[in-house]
Write the structure tokens for this entry.
Amino acid sequence: MAKFLKAKDFLKKIQGLPKGKRKIILWSVVIALGLVFIVFWFLSIKKAVNSFNKEGFFEKMKLPDVGQEMDNAPSYKLFEDDLKKLENEQQ
């Protein structure tokens, strides 16, 4: 209960300060919290990168074979007749 009263007194003291000083305190707290969050974010990224399994990555992705996909892709020759019709219509 004593800590609550101290915090309440501290807030009253801050409320009594001029508006400019209160803004400085507010932005200082915001920047400090932001820096703490950035540090934790970088640490979590570092942990994720270190635990990344490079060997099994491509096997888990199950990427299709590019050569096989290109064989199934539509050929430009299928559209040659349509292109010739368009060219004749424009003339």
Q: What stands out?
A: The radius of gyration is 32 Å. The chain has one domain: 2-90. The chain is about 75% helix and 0% strand. The first helix runs from residue 2 to 15.
